[in-house]
Amino acid sequence: MPKETSSRNLIQMARIRAGMSQVDLARAAKTSQPAVSAYESGKRSPSVETLTRLLAAAGFELRMQLAMPDTHDASRKGAEKFLPTSQVVAHISRERKRLTANERGKKT
Amino acid sequence: MNEVRRLDDVGLLNALVNHSVEFILIGGTAAQLLNLPVPATVGVDITPLRTAKNLKRLAEFFDAVHAALMTSEDAGTWFPRIPVENWSQYSTLHLLTDFGLLDIVFEPAGTQNGYMDLLESSINQELGNSKIRCISEEQWVEMKTSTGREKDLEHLGMYFSQRAKKKNP
């Protein structure tokens, strides 16, 4: 069973977009900062009620919808085996370097 | 089956430009070009203009780069370029080309009219000797938000987290 990661990203995204700190969000959602931190780090998964409350405290609402499974990434992954391995590895390495430079505020 | 000897995103995009295909770069390569803090997977995603003239140019481009359909069973199946309606009726085409993987996404998430919806806010980016149209950072955020997929939320999380870090180091 794949681990659910949407909640933590939604909470973090909503908080940052609202310009709130974890303390601000915790206060607004009537919970504690360690709880918000645990949700954002993925150490704990909130219930749907808690998630709804946290997002509302940041000024957002949770909308859910059913969708067919997305096959794009699986098909890309499957296709990679038909590509030159050394070049796929080089691509991944270049991307890692770019992201590291990006984090340090440099352009590659 | 196609044999891909090299992965060359720039070559692929230049080939599109050389065939006068009107398109907007989306997806991971767009994020890479915008230098967004999210990893780009191998392959190029584009949203082409869906007019008869442009689809004809796209068909010519398919021939030039030996585009083949990717399916779960096969690495590359040749498909007839004409009539264009045969392949342009689908919302997405996963292709293998001489330059690597190419996804044609006529209606990306968050749009109803694909290219036309993206055009106004898209930006021109220089790529080698060519200029290509690319989604803007705001559009990238909007598209990722629209899909609601876990992977996209993960990328948005990375994006907003790093943006916040840069704002308040």
Tally the structural domains of chain A: 2
Give the CATH level 1 class of chain B: Alpha Beta
Oligomeric state as shown: heterodimer
The CATH superfamily label of the largest domain in chain A reads lambda repressor-like DNA-binding domains
Order of helices and strands of chain B: HEHEHEHEEHEEHH
Distance between the termini of chain B: 50 Å
CATH-defined architecture of the largest domain in chain A:
Orthogonal Bundle
List the strand order in the largest sheet of chain B. Answer: 3-4-5-2-1-7-6
CATH class of the largest domain in chain A: Mainly Alpha
List low-confidence stretches of chain B.
none
Quickly give the CATH architecture of chain B.
Answer: 2-Layer Sandwich
Low-confidence stretches of chain A: none
- Give the CATH topology of the largest domain in chain A: 434 Repressor (Amino-terminal Domain)
Largest sheet of chain B: 7 strands, mixed
Overall morphology of chain A: extended
The topology string of helices and strands of chain A comes to HHHHHH
The greatest inter-chain interface is formed by:
A-B, 35 and 41 residues
Whole-number average pLDDT of chain A? 87
Strand content of chain B: 15-25%
Helix content of chain B: 40-55%
